[in-house]
Amino acid sequence: MAVALVKERYQSKVGEVVIGATAAEGGTRTSVVKVGGDSTLPFLHFEGKVENRAAIALEVTDVPPAWSDTVKGQYGDVINDPVAWAKKCVEEYNADMIYLKLIGANPEGENRSPEECAKVVKDVLAAVGVPLIVAGCEDPEKDNEVLAAVAEATSGENLLIGIAEQDNYKSITAAAMVHKHNLIARSPLDINICKQLNILISEMGLPLNRIVIDPMIGGLGYGIEYAYSIMERARLGSLANDKMLSMPMICTVGYEANRAKEANASAEEFPGWGDLNDRAILWEALTAAGLLQVGASILLMRNPAAVKLVQQNIADLMEMNA
Amino acid sequence: MEKFQVKFMPDQQVIEVEQGTSLLKAASQAGIFIKSSCGGKGTCGACKVTVISGEAKSERTGNLSPEQLSRGVRLSCHTFVEGDLTVEVPPESRLQAHQVLLEDANAALLTETSKDLLTYYGYHPLARKVNIRCSEPTLTDNAGDWTRLSIELKRVLQSDKPLTIPLSVLQTLPETLRQAHWDLSVILTDLESGYTVLHVEPANDRPCYGLAIDVGTTTVVVYLVDLDSGEIVDKQGSYNKQAQFGDDVISRIVYAVDSTENMAEIQKAVVDTVNVLIEGILERQSLTSQNIASAVIAGNTTMSQLFLGINPRYIRLEPYIPTVNSTPAVSAREIGLRLLPEALIHTYPSVASYVGGDIVSGALATDMANSDEIILFIDIGTNGEIVLGNKDWLVSCACSAGPCFEGGGILFGMRAMPGAIERVDIDPESLDVKLKVVGKIAPVGICGSGLVDCLAKLRKAGIIDRAGNFQLEHPSQSARIRATEDDKEFVLAWAHQAGGDKDIVISENDVKNLIRAKGAIYAGIRSLLQTVALEIDMIERIVIGGGFGNYLNVHDSVEIGLLPDLPQEKFEFIGNSSVKGARLALLSQKAWNEAADLARKMTYIELSIGTTFMDEFVSALFLPHTDLSLFPSVEGTF
Ligand code: FES
């Protein structure tokens, strides 16, 4: 008996966001990254178009981070030099983008000035050709200053900058608008706040195709199921033509997965958990793999070995299954 | 224990209390009622008094400033008598009789439902008065007094229903009959289950009355109803004296279950409230309590239980269980109400812990249970009860909107009374403000309708964004938007205009409170609709009840997302539906029976289960809503 393939018809699709600008477009990038644009659920090639491959951005920090040795060990000395580090990420680990996190701006830490921060961004831009994602140190007031300076200094590069949140979105949105960058809109695992923030941002005049949603995921075993269902709702919303949910999604996989005890505790400590190296890799890779299934467009990652696995996973998923 | 004298100023009231009595309690014993929003937990600061002289010991000083403390300001709930004292109770700490909703016409923008339900249910009061003439006993006709009376009554009533007489009435019967020379007026209950003689007196044609009583958390309203004509003869309302034990039902429950004395005290407070109202009415009408034969009380579940002295502890504890939904009638004597001692007090049945008799009563008054159309009945008050349905089904919930719209929890919030700002106009460019004030006097605060209007106008002028965040960098650079130490605010009236020494402002905190209140109501509506899988536009009529409903502007309310965006003509206003339903039951046995049915039929939806309400709530915390397509008439205006 013949079985008819059931295909869902969707009214709409995820918006497409372009990150980076080549010389012809007024920037200095050698490649740009396009994300979003899908007109179906993740990787259901038979129902609609999977427009763009999910992109992986590797995290680089301006001052050496307090990461676990399993991850840091894979980078070696470059961890002390953001420029060399970014280069390694692109050349050796095939990062689609660099996610530059300016933790040196933290007033409780190095308290670097906005100008110093902007300089690091410029240096990394000069060193690599891939597009950049730039985020601050999570001190809202300082970040407003830092990102304004970064946005200005990199005008034309079409960065993805963050983080805009519901009680602090105005100055960073303004910076993105004036200097033509894309913006990360972060909401705490709540589809309604996610939508509200997008409305607030777009009412300031930033076009919808310049916004990327950060749903504030939880890592594997630490609330990933909330993120999973929120992201699924966002994707279903965009396919049902809810314009304020139709943005591509970015996930802080590296940060969340490496926060887990499972990515840090040794086998001596927890014999039942097995080898730490493998476990740490898989913790991050599985977090990413799970979120790919609900429409993650940009994965912010740390562990090069995990990145490799996820790159393969994405390549497999991009194969036609129609 | 030693006793000391406490003198309250400026009342000059002196009372003797035991050492260690709190000043809050001492004041109440002296007949001075002090606000105590937190129920005496020492957290709200509403109960401030000033100790002028004498010895008192404070266990808690809350957030009183050192300057206040040095002036003798204390929290009366946590300050205890240690010697003879003189204490001043400032006006802002007193429970004031405020305007209570009595007239439905007041500023109403909606027309009132007009269907005459009494004609529909049939006129058959729960108590009545009959005049009879018994034959005098003789040596050949030597039946007992009660037999004589009951035979004659049955003949006149033309009914086989059982007829009883309580001992207390029996005890004085022989003399009454003879003094009246067997020419009698008999007041009796007339219930489905039978008649009970409440009172016998010499024949007269004084009317016999009943009371319809709405026991609200904040206010209590009493209607005096002529049981012969069905007319409302008088109305009286005041604040519920239980307010001295907390503003909301939860803090009152906490207070009540603390000890048996507290329970007795809180019950007495509401009984007193009703008694004072009854006395006022009786005096005005030159009546005595002997003339009142029946009462129907409608209140939320907590109010009903506290009124009857039933332990309310488990109402507020998961899984939120009331002791009783349908209470038997009790005599006025048992409760201490000033009616005929044997008169029956009927309490409206409840549905669940947070949907009570006031809502059942209101639903009866809307006639929704006989309607083909789908009706949404909303009580816009602290508890925010909502009922949706028609003759086939009814669902209800309580969305706890909080007291915002009654002025509670808002810096300059107040009830709709003289001095309250009721309309606000803000020039979007200069941010100049025009106000409309009740009574056309200098403004002292802002009432519910003013707050609703204000919210819409703040947004329109770009002073707040859709999430309620203040925009300090407004292009007007107006001095009216300013930041204070811990908040941001907008000046509605400068001190010199307000005739006081303080600017009247609305703060970001106020705005967020209002958004939460309106969000809760709209989310409640959406949650009920989801339960029965209906869309907003399938609602055919929206009936708004509750005190605040009177002053509500539908257009403003839709604009901020408080009410669904439906055509104006679908909205209807019913005023104090609770007391209306109480009167209906008082005058119609059939309506009273139907109320019991209605309460059973109403399905209570527990909003704390599942994700629906929370989801709807968050999406409603936006102006007018996260899903702008739900408010097509508003979308373009912001
Ligand atoms: S602080 Fe005394 S009653 Fe609230």
UniProtKB/TrEMBL annotation, chain A:
Classification via InterPro entries: Ac-CoA_synth_d_su_TIM-brl (IPR016041), ACDS_complex_subunit (IPR051069), Dihydropteroate_synth-like_sf (IPR011005)
UniProt domain CO dehydrogenase/acetyl-CoA synthase delta subunit TIM barrel: residue ranges: 16-262
Classification via Pfam families: CdhD
Origin superkingdom: Bacteria
NCBIfam families: PRK04452.1-2 (NF003376)
Protein name per UniProt: CO-methylating acetyl-CoA synthase corrinoid iron-sulfur protein small subunit /acetyl-CoA decarbonylase/synthase delta subunit
Native organism: Desulfitobacterium chlororespirans DSM 11544
From TrEMBL, chain B:
InterPro entries reported for this sequence: 2Fe-2S_ferredoxin-like_sf, 2Fe-2S_ferredoxin-type, ATPase_NBD, Beta-grasp_dom_sf, Corrinoid_activation_enz, Raco-like_middle, Raco-like_middle_sf, RACo_C
Pfam families attached to this UniProt entry: Fer2, RACo_C_ter, RACo_linker, Raco_middle
Domain of life: Bacteria
Gene3D superfamilies membership: 3.10.20.30, 3.10.20.880, Domain of unknown function (DUF4445) (3.30.420.480)
Positions of the 2Fe-2S ferredoxin-type domain: 4-93
GO molecular function per UniProt: iron-sulfur cluster binding
PANTHER family: IRON-SULFUR CLUSTER PROTEIN, IRON-SULFUR CLUSTER-BINDING PROTEIN-RELATED
Protein known as: Uncharacterized 2Fe-2 and 4Fe-4S clusters-containing protein, contains DUF4445 domain
Organism: Desulfitobacterium chlororespirans DSM 11544
